[in-house]
Amino acid sequence: MMSAMGTLAPLAWRNVWRNPRRTVITLIVVSVGLWSVLFFNALLIGWIQSSKDAALKLLTQDGQIHAVGYMDDPSVETFMQPPSGALLDALNDGVIEDWSMRVSAPGVVQSEYKTLPITFMGVDPQAENRISTIPGDVDQGRYLQSVEDDGIILGKHLVERLKTDLGRRVIVMSQNVDGTLSEWSYDVVGIFDSDQGIEDFYIFTGLKASQEFLGLENEIAQVVVTLPDQADLVSSIQTLKDVAPELDVRSWKELNLFLAMTDDFMGVYIFVWLAIVFSMMAIGIVNTQLMAVFERTQEFGLLRALGMKPGRVLLMVSIESALLIGVGVLLGIVLAIFSIWALQGGIDLTAYARAMEMVQAGSVIYVDYHPDGIVRFSFIIWILGILVALWPARRASKCSPQEAMRRDT
């Protein structure tokens, strides 16, 4: 078998270039098809990562801890005590990259012109600067300075809806621990420009200031955590669940189902695209190879008349297809790597920022790739291409000297 391969391979390589036009067409079909698969995969990875960064680094982070029942009834009655004991040790032992405590309660905000529903958030500004992008999104005024800071940060779109502005005062109302309505006048010290959903429904003040407003002592609504590596998500969340079984510990995949579904089905999307691309490639490969077989009927019949067995003819044509498709695969890899390298600075979609927010993606998408993905998809295309080319090769192996003679006459 190996000796036959060594004998037929040089002959097959020369046969590949006997019709340069057909060879170039096949190379274009294979290389462009593989390029589209590899580039789309890199773009999809970048989009998913951009979506995760845009969504998780706002308020969700990698995981959250609440009292049992808080997710169903996010009110002061379902708040929890700050972390202590085994939970505090787990948060500080290095498995968790960073964490922060927050107060979160439904309420309304009122300006001179309008009253709107909001979620009132009390945060630790130092911790939020490390784990959230919202402090960096403040483009007017300033961010909160300490947990005692009783200024308020509003979203840009909420400011427009309330017809208020930086330096003005707004009234916030929410239910306190006594079941009565707390009402407080706040100075607008900062305006942030971020995701419109966050802008419209979240306002921020210092953690201690929010606890005083709601009549709390040191109770909090949630603990949010960030992880150094997403690969440790399941084990890290399980560790927190084990040390705090009385609390409700959830990963971002349980908190943001749309993003989790998109992340889980990323592989499905690329294989659907692979199937579509390969279907089109298969048509081109079969057509060109069949045309080559029909044109070389006399040649194959002569080879049979000279004593070449059908299996050797099949092997020779298969080697031709493997070499031709292999060159196309290499060209596709080169095109994909060059395209990905050319876009390493990211695809700036700032002009469509609001539209990107609707699909939970950032305004800049950084094209990313995994080397194992390039190898895997390239190998799949090469093998499938060879399998598709076996049909024309089988027809070639069935050519007989008699058929060649009839074609000659």
Concise description?
The protein contains 16 helices and twelve strands.
Describe the structure.
- The longest helix has 41 residues, at 20-60.
- The model has no long low-confidence stretch (mean pLDDT 81).
- The chain has 16 helices and 12 strands.
- It has 2 domains: 2-55 and 263-408, no CATH class; 63-226, no CATH class.
- The relative contact order is 0.18.
- The protein has 409 residues and is of the alpha+beta class.
Mean pLDDT: 81
- The assigned structural class equals alpha+beta
Count of strand segments:
12
What is the end-to-end distance? 36 Å
User: Whole-number radius of gyration?
Assistant: 32 Å
Count of domains: 2
- Percentage of residues in strands: 15-25%
Order of helices and strands: HHEHEEHEEHEEHEHEHEHHHHHEHEHH
Instruction: Indicate the percent of residues in helices.
Output: 55-70%
Structure annotation, total helices: 16
List keywords for this structure.
single chain; 409 residues; alpha+beta; 2 domains; ten-stranded mixed sheet; two-stranded antiparallel ribbon; 16 helices; 56% helix; elongated
Question: Which SSEs are present, and which pair or pack?
Answer:
Blueprint: H1 2-16, H2 20-60, E1 63-67, H3 85-92, E2 98-110, E3 115-123, H4 125-131, E4 138-141, E5 152-155, H5 156-162, E6 169-175, E7 181-192, H6 196-201, E8 202-206, H7 207-214, E9 222-226, H8 233-243, E10 247-251, H9 252-255, H10 257-264, H11 266-295, H12 297-305, H13 310-342, E11 347-348, H14 353-358, E12 364-365, H15 371-397, H16 401-408
Parallel strand pairs: 3-8, 5-7
Antiparallel strand pairs: 1-9, 1-10, 2-3, 2-6, 2-9, 4-7, 6-7, 11-12
Helix pairs in contact: 1-13, 2-11, 2-13, 2-15, 11-15, 12-16, 13-15
